[in-house]
Specification:
2 copies of one chain form a homodimer. By secondary structure, the first copy, chain A, is α+β, with helices and mostly antiparallel strands. Chain A has one domain: Arc Repressor Mutant, subunit A (Orthogonal Bundle). The first copy, chain A, contains 6 helices and 6 strands, in the order ααβααββββαβα. In chain A, strands 1-3-2 form a 3-stranded antiparallel β-sheet. In chain A, β4 and β5 form a beta hairpin. At the A-B interface, α5 and β6 of A face α5 and β6 of B. β6 of chain A pairs antiparallel with β6 of chain B. Chain A binds a DNA duplex (25 and 25 nucleotides) through α4.
DNA sequence: CTAGGTGCAAACAATTTGCTGCTCA
DNA sequence: TGAGCAGCAAATTGTTTGCACCTAG
């Protein structure tokens, strides 16, 4: 609500994210290079973007940053469990940070403007486990994307 | 259970599918060419396959069948609402027939052997509508994929 | 005939990799 | 010094399209 709260809250989260990245990289004997941290930072500020968009954003802070570096960094962060990659309809892979490892959320995508809203719902997750169980599957993960028209796009029509 | 039953059942479904394809193509002023019907048939017998696999399968029946023809036929059938295209983790698009237009089902994918089991669950769908409503979205469609280890792969370990 | 359909091969676009030089422990 | 890292450019992969030939109405 109040500017200071939001700011300090955002800052806090970003620091937590940053240290998580550094720590996790160190654990895997990977160097927390400026480029990698820049990619991680960009990812923090711009969720659900594809490789190209992330590269564009990051380039504003460091114009020499290469495309392959962003690519390899994303793969690296993904392998470390720090980011998730998903694919909504349009042909490109989109990345988002995975701030709290255990937490899983799903997506609702507006087919009008492409806006992505995140949500989670324990009841549905419980039912998913039931379904898996009924088929004898050992559930490891899931994805659920809801497509629809957001309020703003509904009004615009 | 008994061979005859299964066979006749399968045959019945296939005929229904085939006539639906022919009928739907006719309605859109598209010709039910042998190649298109072959693709439709292949699709019926081999669900959740990608373009390349479908092409391989179809080629057994008609070695002259071109890749582009399979591609264009799939797009055509998709536009007619006869097939659905989805994308599970691996980089390729997979196709499946959409026998009963109104019916929607979801997928459970074995991360061990890639086997795909279809299911549907009304309760979850109801909750999805609730979630969308809560965010002011007008829900148009959804996808839900559960990933896990199938009973067979669990035993193998 | 002629519109639509096919197969081939080439074009595309997103992603992935090889390589060379550089940097930091 | 040397293992890991960055940037460039080329290779790869999945998908899409242009074009010339063909076939059924």
């Amino acid at each position: 609500m109040r500017g200071t709260d939001v700011t300090s809250q955002a800052k806090l989260d970003f620091d937590a994210w940053r240290s998580r990245v550094v720590e996790r990289l160190a654990r895997d004997h990977q160097r927390p290079t400026p480029q990698r941290l820049l990619v991680a930072e960009t990812l923090f500020h711009h969720g659900h973007q594809n490789l190209d968009e992330l590269h564009q954003h990051a380039r504003r802070a460091d114009p020499t940053l290469g495309y392959a570096t962003v690519y390899r960094t994303l793969k690296l962060l993904e392998k470390c469990g720090l980011v998730n990659c998903s694919n909504f309809g349009d042909g490109t892979a989109r990345y988002e940070i995975n701030l709290h490892a255990a937490e899983h959320h799903d997506h609702m995508i507006c087919t009008g403007c492409g806006r992505i809203v995140e949500f989670e719902n324990d009841a549905i997750e419980a039912m998913q486990r039931q379904i898996a169980l009924a088929h004898g599957f050992e559930l490891t993960s899931h994805r659920m994307d809801l497509y629809g028209v957001c309020p703003r796009c509904q009004r615009r029509k």
